[in-house]
Design a protein that fits this description.
The complex is a heterodimer.
Chain A lengths: L1 H29 L2 H17 L5 H24 L17 H13 L2 H41 L4 H33 L3 H54 L4 H29 L2 H17 L5 E6 L6 H21 L5 E7 L4 E8 L5 H4 L1 H12 L4 E5 L6 E8 L8
Parallel strand pairs in A: 1-2
Antiparallel strand pairs in A: 2-3, 3-5, 4-5
Chain B lengths: L1 E5 L3 H13 L3 E6 L2 H11 L3 E5 L9 H12 L5 E5 L4 H9 L5 E5 L6 H12 L3 E3 L1 H10 L4 H4 L3 H12 L3 H8 L3 H15 L7 H11 L3
Parallel strand pairs in B: 1-2, 1-3, 3-4, 4-5, 5-6
Helix pairs in contact in B: 2-3, 6-8, 8-10, 8-11, 9-10
The chains are: A alpha+beta, B alpha/beta.
């Protein structure tokens, strides 16, 4: 009988969870659904007058965030997978008015934004109705059943009705949630064209990564061949020759052995540089946190660090982030004539590693570091990351990088 | 002189034992992992320890951590840390746990046998031996700073050698000048950088390293 009792308890927990989830959907459809929709609709015409430039991105991004939340619910609660349809953010972001106009353009030209807005509107009635149904059925059914049994026994017809309502609420609850998820999918999922565009971007990114890896391996092979291997050969020759002349010309042998030692030192230095370019030892030893701190200590200008990482990203992400940060800082030193710089590293609530690097230099950086920026962007794109640069002439320059990743909580 | 070694690579470990023994030192224990090294350091309290940064089990910075921990428990325990690469960050961590009897060198330096043994002896007697690589990175970092710019190139050379932990005699030999010339340079340096002058060789190395912000 215990099996039946625990099954009953499980059913009870499931029902309560379903009802609560439904109510969450219902509430969210109205709040923040209604204000977001109204804000968007009201601010759009204001664009014509110019003021709209501020509230339009805010409200549209709010709508987008709400829609993303609903996609997550659909997946987690009803196993309905809705892919993200949005276009990638532009990587050159200006400040001030131009920047805001750029953001408006990016949002307004994306059809997914309009579908999100439509969904927000239609979800107001649909979400409230479907969301409240399971809770309604269960609560009313249960309440009516109990009050009928205790207060007014005998009306079996009524009892059957309430029992039926309760049963419907319990059994149909998950299906109603799924129906809402499927309705959301109809409007929030990417169109065929958007999926193709995403696929195209992924393919492009992948082939860029493959090319970059191959080029990297060739460079390593060449460095080894021309550097350390050459020095070791020279070392061997010096020692071999020293062996030959040792008895007859000990002074020459001494000189040759000193040269051999010199070659070995240079080979080690070459290998050290190579290793540093592949995967800096301090990165493996101390993680991204420690590696950035160590890097800051070696730079010729003071770098203010604000690092808050509750764990370690996966090694390839750490490596990409480290090299990107190192390259940005190298650019700061080379081009910006800055007196100081700062680096902020954190992990935000949307599972993204955020790195922000700023300096107090002369700005106007975008055209100058165009080449290096492209390389960093490619490296980050392999992980679905992005980079954005704000660099008005006169400074300050701020470079923002984002990398989606999971952190492991074990620290070395 | 009693030495404890911390090195897991057999080739290097045997080489170091041979080297140290040839110069009249006794290797009382050669540990090949972090925990064993820490235990050996605390148990034997050697005259000097020669330790690799990277050791099992994690192959990250076990040796470094063992050295710092041992010096926390046995203040002033002389330790010479060897590494395949040097990081000013690690130098800072080592120095922050107390000053005397500390060395941080690239493994490359072992091949200059005389200089290496000299470093071991310096560290054993309470001095400092910092790798020129670390010092040059630190100097490069402060290169734009006002006070450092006031130094002449020669004075900068002397500063670097001082920071490595060399004596006046050592600096004079390296730069092929007289010890008196070295003293004069050092006086000028301390004046221009406004450093605390008193105390022995070790104190002045630390004054310089502190100035370089390690």
């Amino acid at each position: 009988m215990s099996g039946g009792a625990s099954g009953f308890r499980r059913l009870g927990r499931l029902t309560i969870r379903t009802c609560v989830r439904g109510l969450v959907i219902a509430v969210l459809s109205v709040l923040p659904g209604v204000p977001l929709f109204i804000a968007s609709v009201v601010s759009l015409p204001l664009l014509a007058v110019g003021i709209g430039v501020v509230p339009v991105p805010m409200s549209l991004l709010g709508v987008r965030r709400r829609a993303s939340q609903q996609r997550r619910f659909a997946l987690e609660w009803s196993r309905v997978s809705i892919a993200t349809p949005y276009r990638p953010r532009p990587h050159e972001v200006s400040n001030g008015l131009i920047g805001r106009l750029q953001r408006c353009k990016w949002l307004l030209t994306d059809p997914a934004t309009w579908r999100d807005l439509l969904w927000t509107l239609v979800n107001m009635p649909v979400g409230v109705t479907l969301g409240a149904l399971p809770a309604f059925g269960v609560v009313v059914g249960l309440g009516g059943l109990l009050s009928g049994v205790w207060l007014r026994p005998g009306h079996t017809g009524e009892l059957l009705l309430f029992a039926g309502l309760l049963l419907a609420g319990v059994l149909a609850g998950p299906r109603i949630l799924k129906a809402h998820a499927q309705f959301s999918a109809a409007l929030l999922a990417p169109t065929r064209k958007e999926l193709d565009a995403q696929l195209g971007r992924l393919n492009e990114s992948r082939s860029e990564v493959v090319d970059a890896s191959a080029a990297e391996l060739r460079r390593i092979e060449r460095d080894l061949h021309d550097g350390a291997q050459a020095r070791l050969v020279s070392l061997g020759m010096s020692i071999g020759l020293a062996e030959q002349v040792l008895r007859n010309d000990p002074d020459l042998a001494l000189k040759l052995l000193a040269e051999a030692r010199e070659s070995s030192g240079q080979a080690l230095t070459d290998l050290r540089h190579l290793v540093r370019g592949i995967h800096p030892p301090v990165l493996a030893e101390r993680g991204l946190d420690g590696a950035v701190r160590a890097l800051a200590l070696t730079l010729p200008l003071p770098v203010d660090l604000r690092i808050e990482l509750p764990g370690r990203p996966p090694a390839p992400v750490e490596s990409a982030a480290y090299f990107a940060i190192a390259e940005v800082l190298a650019n700061v030193i080379k081009h910006s004539a800055a007196r100081s710089a700062w680096v902020q590293l954190e992990y935000n609530s949307q599972a993204r590693l955020i790195a922000i690097i700023g300096d107090d230099g002369t700005g106007g950086a975008v055209p100058r570091i165009g080449g290096g920026l492209r390389g960093i962007e490619r490296r980050l794109a392999a992980f679905d990351g992005m980079i954005a640069v704000t660099s008005p002439v006169g400074g300050p320059t701020v470079v923002t990088m984002e990398l989606p990743c999971e952190l492991s909580l074990a620290r070395t | 002189m009693r030495v404890v070694l911390g090195e897991d690579l057999t080739l290097l470990r045997d080489g170091l034992i041979r080297l140290l023994t040839a110069y009249g030192m006794e290797v009382v224990e050669a540990a090949d992992n972090g925990p064993a090294l820490l235990h050996a350091l605390i148990t034997h309290r050697p005259d000097v320890a020669v330790v690799d940064v990277r050791l099992p089990p994690t192959f990250t910075d076990e040796g470094l951590k063992a050295a710092i921990e041992a010096r926390a428990q046995v203040p002033g325990l002389p330790v010479l840390v060897l590494s395949q690469h040097v990081e000013p960050l690690y130098a800072r961590e080592l120095l922050s746990g107390g000053s005397g009897g500390l060395g941080y060198l690239l493994k490359d330096r072992v091949s200059d046998v005389r200089r290496f043994i000299e470093a071991v002896r310096t560290v054993a007697s309470g001095g400092t031996a910092m790798d020129p690589e670390v010092i040059s990175q630190l100097l490069a970092r402060r290169a734009r700073d006002e006070p450092l710019r006031r130094l002449t190139p020669r004075e900068r050379e002397v500063l670097a050698l001082m920071a490595e932990g060399r004596t006046n005699a050592g600096i004079a030999a390296r730069l092929v000048v007289t010890e008196k010339a070295v003293s004069k340079h050092i006086n000028n340096i301390f004046t221009k950088l406004d450093l605390y002058r008193g105390g022995d060789d070790n104190r002045r190395v630390l004054a310089v390293l502190t100035y370089l912000n390690v």
